[in-house]
Specification:
- The protein has a domain of 42 residues.
- The chain is built from two helices and no strands.
- The protein is 72% helix and 0% strand.
- It starts with a helix and ends with a helix.
- By secondary structure, it is mainly alpha-helical.
- The longest helix is centred in the first third of the chain and has 40 residues.
Length: 85
């Protein structure tokens, strides 16, 4: 029984080591190929923000809507707390 257990543990260790080496190798190859493709394609192009000087920023929502939203949220919280006592 003990020899059989030792053999099983040895085989499990070998499978563990082989699996880790395969995964590590695959990830290393994947990283290498991604860097190679990036250098061949040209990499990331810098993104420039285009601002239209004639365009105005949007105004925030009006105050009555904010009060309505706050009231609705407060009522929902109150109802939830009443139902879950």
């Amino acid at each position: 029984m003990e020899n059989n257990l030792g053999a099983l543990l040895l085989e499990a260790g070998n499978l563990l080591l082989i699996g880790m080496v395969v995964v590590f190798s695959f990830l290393g190859i994947l990283i290498f190929l991604m860097k190679l493709m990036s250098s061949l394609v040209g990499g990331d192009a810098p993104v420039t923000a285009q601002v239209n000087p004639g365009q105005r920023a949007r105004k925030p929502a009006s105050a009555p809507q904010d009060h309505k939203v706050k009231a609705a949220i407060s009522a929902a919280i109150h109802q939830y707390r009443q139902d879950n006592k």
